[in-house]
Amino acid sequence: VRSSVMKLSGQTIVLTGSSSGIGAEAARKLARLGATVCLLARREDQLEAVRASIIASGGVAHPCAVNLAAPEAVDAVAATLLVDHPRIDALVNNAGRSIRRSISESVDRAHDYERTMAINYFGAVRLTLTLVPRFIEQGHGHVVISASMSTQVPIPLFSAYLASKSALESFTRSLTAELGHHGVTSTVVYFPMVRTEMSTATQIYQAMPMLSAEKAANWLVKAIVDKPTRVTSLAGTMGELGMAALPGIVTKASQPLFRRMDKSLAKRAKD
């Protein structure tokens, strides 16, 4: 812990999606490790509650209410951050929205894909781009994205969400490939299912074992402190290796497994 405190003391970290769930828990943990945390999310009252809890524990936090789906709002909050904080050490693109709907039920709902991309991809990219000049100027900057284990294996029913996360992964990899020599680094965090407001909004998932938001927040802390290229699980790694080596077989074999899982979860949710 002492090593972590030394690494984060004096650092400023911008964290989106920090009003609840993984983001709020990570904000509290990062503040306890000495970082100044800039809290970005839409819900101002919940941001204030997270800030108050951080201040009560002796930390430093600055709430910034913003709708990341609105380009002008992203530009405005970024301008404020750059003025208020001469040094910004890391950006955590954690905010996101998810839609669980089959492709066959989405043929007349292209707006589902558009609004998911607006937050999960375009909002995150726009915010990152506004901070890149500062990262280059100061010679360092770390970008973390909250991705999903479901991009490592073929998962049904979340095509809008997973497409947006895959796009953000590719952008983040390119960011490091192009700007690594300027000290700009990145970490992709492949979360499994985490018990948050977003996941439990789907009724059948209330019966599914999930990682707690408190434990998931440790993954983001690891990404900030250690700066690995990725943080993932054994299951995610094995799934990715399987898709790389035998994509057709893995995809075909997984289809009946997910159908059975959904039926089992639906039954347990009713019971």
Query: What order do the SSEs take from the amino end to the carboxyl end, as H and E?
Result: HEHEHEHEHEHEEHEHEHH
Major sheet size, sense and barrel closure: 7 strands, parallel
Low-confidence parts, pLDDT < 50 over ≥5 residues?
Answer: none
User: Per DSSP, what share of the residues sits in E-state strands of 2 or more residues?
Assistant: 15-25%
Structural class: alpha/beta
**What is the tally of helical segments?**
10
Helical amount: 55-70%
Distance between the termini: 43 Å
Mean pLDDT: 92
Could you tell me the number of beta strands?
A: 9
Shape: globular
What's the Cα radius of gyration?
Answer: 19 Å
Major sheet: arrangement of strands: 3-2-1-4-5-6-9
Task: Give a short synopsis of this structure.
This protein is α/β, with parallel strands linked by helices. It is built from ten helices and nine strands. Strands 3-2-1-4-5-6-9 form a seven-stranded parallel β-sheet, sandwiched between helices. Strands 7-8 form a two-stranded parallel sheet.
